[in-house]
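Reviewer 2 asked us to include a model.

Predict the structure of this chain.
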Amino acid sequence: MLQQLNTTVQEYISDWLRSQQSIFYNRNITSTSVVHNMDSTTATSLLATILTVYLFYRLFSSLTSNSANSKPVKFTVPVPEAAQKHWKGKRLYPTSVYNSEEPNKIQCYCPATGQFLGSFPSMSVKDIDTLVSNATKAQLKWRNTTLEQRAQVLASLQEFILANQDKIARVACRDSGKTMLDASMGEILVTLEKLQWIIKHGPKTLKTSSRPGPTNFFMKWYKGAEVRYEPLGVVGALVSWNYPFHNLLGPIIAALFTGNAIVVKCSEQVVWSSEFFISTVKKCLEVCGHDPDLVQLCYCFPPTAEDDAANRFTSHPGLKHLTFIGSKPVAHHVLAAAAKSLTPVVVELGGKDAFLVLDSAKNLPALCSIIMRGTFQSSGQNCIGIERVIVSNQNYDEIVSILDKRVGQLRLGSDIDHLEDVDMGAMISDNRFEELEKMVSSAVEQGARLLHGGSRYNHPNYPQGHYFQPTLLVDVTPDMDIAQNEVFGPVLTVMRAKNTEDCVRIANSAPFGLGGSIFGNDYNECNDVAGRLTTGNVAINDFATFYVCQLPFGGLNGSGYGKFGGEEGLLGLCNAKSVCFDKLPFVSTQIPKPLDYPIRSNRKAWEFVKSFNTGGYTLSTWQRIKSLLSLAKNAN
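Predicted model (structure tokens):
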């Protein structure tokens, strides 16, 4: 028994020491040497202390929390037929969201197989007005709910997701073409983390913030100040298709917890899955006793001269805030429309994220596994995916050699029905295949080496599917088009740098600034590089975990502006109402006689205010005394 306790404590402390990387880098101290010198008695005592503190914490938490309101409510939602295993749907050819026979309907299909999923009418201006109106009415009551009631909705949703992971992943895969594994990691895991993080830390974030108040010597004694975070009303979000579940749920979760209603506009590429996911949230609200109209789904074709519904959404005066996730060209239209109603917009436009491998980096095979996952997950359709692998000269050849062997082994296909083992799924459509092929061929013409892929792939089992070969392109230089523009596809681009300084130079050479990763065994060097990257997010010796950590997410330059996620994301959906008050009930602000209208003497009034300013802000005690005398002299 003592030996088991000793082992448990050793593992606990080892994990803690590993988390304190900055302390142990370049020192002759290891977590192993610390914990294995601990005897069983010491280990038992330490574990007992830890357990005691933990039990007291849990007891205190249970006594101070309202468990009745936050207890999850179980519910079920019918799953679409197309989300069943081994579903046999008719295949479209050609595959497109547009159907000439039904021009006003959005045609949905599976990008991996070409199977038809359904058609949905593109919404009109009138439809969008109705969505906003319904959400506005529902929000009037919702804004007055407690944080415990809102947390119960999130907890119920979390329980549903945990119990229905297979179904949710299959729905997401049918509509996006990704693999089930990619859906589990990129859709479900991050959504569960967001839910649990907000349930746990959201109340503290939205708690009224006490502020210092004025520094004026005469006012600071009796004036108090605070900031209250209140709902904006109805907010909107325009989300991209690459993560149809997570991108849709993310803004909904944040909006509901902050007391807002929300209208989400999904991409026309993923209407089918978005309808199901929205129905899940609506059912969750309903079983928790709240109005399902708090959440609304909008979908329509891009704006044309004949149909301006999309612009109506982004310029709607009923929306008090917008979150946009998409491309730079579309962002220009969104911002122009939002300017008409002066609606604030958070803009996330993707990036050209760099993965820096410094000379001090170790365990290159494991590092290459991270590169592979960060590049090819969701077929490279990831705004914080690895777009440029920048390797300092010492490790360059070995990195290229390892990747060369592994990229060629990747298998394409669809595992939605678990019929085959695959590594990478389909892309959302084939409308960028020609552009991707041109970017690769142009780089080769300029001196890059194409080791694998580089073109579209006609899958023998899914000829209607949108597949692009996993591509490995090395010896890429910053002047090449593929190094400056977002690929958003399964292309692994490797660039050689002379040293750490050159790694930073190359990383900052692209006109984007969303995220980046730095790998090296010298923490001080990595930390220094993190401070020199022009990005909104950085992971040291990891990839994209800043997103899982629920830190504020957003970029610079061509990657947009503003933040969503974390504390800043929640506060951005609130009206930060500033409130000042009297701390002492018997002291309040009065208009002094020299300043009362009509002014009896401008000379006395001037001397009074001048003395008030001097006495309120001077650092000299003598000056303050003289000011007090002057105030008394000019008070009448």
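Confidence is low (pLDDT under 50) at residues 1-5, 16-37, 62-68. DSSP finds 23 helices and 20 strands in the chain. We have added this to the supplementary material.
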